[in-house]
Amino acid sequence: MTKVTYVENDGTRRDIDVQDGENLMDGALDNLVPGIDGDCGGVCACATCHVHVDSEWLDKLPPMDATEDAMLELTDDRNESSRLCCQIKASPELDGIVVHTPAGQH
Amino acid sequence: MTETVVIVGGGQAGAQVAVSLRQGGFDGRIVLLGDEPVLPYQRPPLSKTYLAGELARERLFVKPAAFYEKVNIEHQLGEAVCAINASEQVVCLDSGQTLHYDHLVLATGGRVRPLPCSGADHPQVNYLRTLADVEAMQDKFTEGTRLVVIGGGYIGLETAAVAVKHGLKVTLLVARPTPLGRVTSPEVGKFFEAVHREAGVTLRCDTEVVAIEDDGGDGQVAAVVTSCGYRVLADLVVVGIGLLPNVELAQSAGIACDDGITVDEYGRTNIDNIYAAGDCANHPNPIYQRRLRLESVQNAVDQGKTVAATICGKDKPYAQVPWFWSDQYDLKLQTAGINAGYDQTVIRGDVDSRSFAVFYLREGRLLAVDAINRPAEFVVARNIIGKNIVVSAERLQDESIPAKALADVPVNSGSTEDTTKDDAHNQERVA
Ligand SMILES: Cc1cc2nc3c(=O)[nH]c(=O)nc-3n(C[C@H](O)[C@H](O)[C@H](O)COP(=O)(O)OP(=O)(O)OC[C@H]3O[C@@H](n4cnc5c(N)ncnc54)[C@H](O)[C@@H]3O)c2cc1C
Ligand code: FES
Do B248 and B104 sit in the same domain of this protein? Predict the structure, then answer.
C-alpha cells in the first residue's frame, strides 16, 4: 500500500492507501475523491485526471511520455508540476506523495 | 417538494447525468434505471484491455458502488423500462412497477445491428457490446481458436488485434474497400489494413457475408460463407457491423426521433421535461452546423453534463469538438472532429514510421484529424477546430513547425478572434 494525499482545491486533504501497482486515478475514484473524473478509464486519452504534484515528489516520478505531455495541453491550469495521475502508479518509493486537484476540474 | 429525476439507461451517459446532477447541486431524488444487471461501466475496454484479460473487472465501472450510496443516487438494475406516459409523467417497468418523474432522461444507448443473413443465429456467433457479450466468449480467446471477425469498424479491428496477439487464427471480413471506411479515409484504412496483415490477420475487403452454415451439424463450428465464394470455418464468430439507437421507447411516447432521439442544444426533446443523451441522442452540432448522432465516450459524458445542467437550470449548450480513440497493437489512434464532407487530406509525417496524422479539410478549413501515435497533432487539432482557426494545408504539413505551434497563426491570416471558443465559431460559420 502506498499512502497518497489528495488535496482538493478548497484545501480538503484526504489520505488514501492505494494498492501498489494501481494508478492514482483509480485510487481517487475508488475512494470518491472529487475533482478526478478519469473519463477514458486511464488510457491517457481524456486529460480529466490532471493533478499538480508537490514539488518534492516530482523527481521521484517516472518521466512523462509524449502522449501525457501532449494531453496535458488540454488542461486549463498546466504548470511544471502537472501530471495525469492515471499515468502514476502507486509504489513504495511514492509512499507519502501529495497531489492537488486543480480548480478547473471541480 | 423535492423533485425526482428518472434516468432510463445505466450506461456512460446515464451515469454522467446522475453524477453531474449532484455536482451541480441538485438535491432531489435521482433514480437510475438500467436493464443490464450491473452498475454503469465503460465499454471501450471491452474490445481492448478487458478482452485481452489485462484489466480487472472492477476497473470497468464508471464509479464504485459506494459512490452511488454516498451521493444518494438510487439505482434499479436488471429491468427494462417498457413505457413512458408523458402526460402523467410516469414510467412503467417490465415488472409493472410505475415511477413518477419530474424530469426524465433517456440514455438508452443502442443495440448491435444484427447480421442480416441466414444462419446468423448460429451458437458460435457473438456480438460485442456488453460485458455479458465479452464474458460469454472470453474462454474461447485461446491459442489456436479459429476466429472470424465480421466488420471492419473500430470494434472489429480492436477485437482482431487482441485475438491475434493471443494466438487465435483470425480472419477479418470487411464489406468496404478498406477497413474503417465509414469513419476515416482510404489512407488511414489502408494503413490499418497493412498493420493487421503484418500482425498475422487474414483480411479480406469488399467481402460481404452471405450466410452462416453449421459445419459439423453440432453447432460447434460455423462456416462463414462470403460473397466471393469463400467458406471460412470458425470456432468463434464476432460481428461488429454497427449500432442501432434505442429509440422505440421514446417513439412510442410521441417523442420526435430521426436517427436517434431528436434533442436541442440543451439536450431537450420535443416533450417538456424529457431529455436525451449519449449514443441514442441526435443533436444539433454548432461546429459542423448540422445534426449529428455520435457514439463515443466524449459525447456521452459531455451530453450527460449538458442535460444535468439544463435540469439544474443552468445554461450549458452542447458545443464540443467530438473526439475518439482506438488502441490496436502499439498504435494509439486519436480522432478529433468529424471528417464528413472533406475535400482535401493532408498527411503530416511518414505513414511507414507508424506515427503520422491525417488532417481533413473542406474549403481550406480543418474538419478533423486522425492522429496515429501523434498526440500533439490530436490536441492542436481540437483547438483549431474548436476555435475555427484557419491554418493552411502547407502549414499543417510542415514538420519544421512543432505540432503545438500549428494553431499560432497571426490573426490577420484569417483566424477568428479567440473569444469564448464556440461563439466565435458560430458567428463565422453562420455569417
Ligand atoms: C466494444 C466497444 C468499444 C468502444 N470503444 C470506444 C472507444 O475506444 N472510445 C470511445 O470514445 N467510445 C468507444 N465506444 C463507444 C462508447 O462506449 C459508447 O459511445 C458509450 O458507451 C455510450 O454510452 P451511452 O450511455 O449512451 O449508451 P450505453 O453505454 O449503451 O448505455 C445505455 C444503457 O441503457 C440500457 N437501456 C436501453 N434501453 C433501456 C430500457 N428501456 N430500460 C432500461 N435500460 C435500458 C442499455 O441496456 C444500456 O445498458 C465503444 C463501444 C463498444 C461497444
Ligand atoms: S483518465 Fe483519461 S487521461 Fe487519465
Answer: yes
Pairing of strands B236-239, B231-234: unpaired
pLDDT at B425: 40
Number of folded domains that form chain B: 3
- Does the Cβ of B12 fall within 6 Å of ligand 1? yes
Q: Rounded to an integer, what distance in angstroms lies between the CA atom of residue A18 and that of residue B368? A: 39
Cα–Cα distance list, B310 to B56, B91, B355 (Å): 35, 21, 41
Q: Which CATH class is domain A2-100?
A: alpha beta
pLDDT digits (tens, 9 = 90+) for A51-67: 999 999 999 999 999 99
Question: Which chain A residues contact residue B64 at CB under 8 A?
Answer: 29-30, 32
Q: Are residues B31 and B134 in the same domain?
A: no
Residues B133 and B237 in one domain: yes
Substitution target from A30, A36, A75, A84 for chain B, most B beta carbons within 10 A: A30
- Phi then psi dihedrals of residue B92, to 5 deg: -115, 135
Q: Which residue has the higher pLDDT, B414 or A34?
A: A34
In a domain, B87, yes or no: yes
Is B317 part of a structural domain of the chain? no
| Residue among A29, A33, A43, A68 whose CB has most ligand 2 atoms within 8 A, to mutate | A43
Please indicate, yes or no, if residue B422 is contained in any of the structural domains: no
- Assess whether B138 and B236 both reside in one domain: yes
Instruction: Indicate the residue among B180, B209, B241 that finishes a domain.
Output: B241
**Residue A18 in this model has a pLDDT that exceeds 50:** yes
| Residues B49 and B73 placed together within one structural domain of the fold | yes
Domain ranges, ordered by start, for chain A: 2-100
Whether B358 is in the pocket of ligand 1, judged by its Cβ within 6 Å, is no
The CA A26 to ligand 2 mean position distance, Å, reads 10
pLDDT for A105 equals: 75
Residue closest via CA to ligand 2's atom 3 equals: A44
CA dihedral B219, B220, B221, B227 (to 10 degrees): 30
- Per-residue pLDDT band at A49 (split at 50, 70, 90): very high
pLDDT-flagged residues of chain B (< 50): 413-431
**Residue B141 falls inside a structural domain:** yes
Residues with CB under 6 A from ligand 2: A 25, 38-40, 42, 44-49, 71, 84, 86
Choose one of B289, B311, B333: the last residue of a domain.
Answer: B311
Q: Which domain holds residue B303?
A: 4-111+244-311
> Cα separation of B227 and B241, whole Å?
16
pLDDT of residue A32: 86
Are B133 and B236 in a shared domain?
Answer: yes
DSSP structural state of residue B41? B
Q: How far apart are alpha carbons B198 and B323 in whole angstroms?
A: 28
CB contact under 8 Å between A40 and B59, yes or no, is no
Domain of residue B200, CATH code: 3.50.50.60
According to the model, what pLDDT value does residue B411 have? 60
Residues B291-325: b if buried by 16+ CB within 10 A, e if exposed: ebbbbbbbbbbbbbbbbbbbbbeeebebbbbbbbb
Whether complex ipTM tops 0.95: no
> pLDDT tens-digit profile of B399-431?
999 999 999 987 654 444 444 444 434 333 332
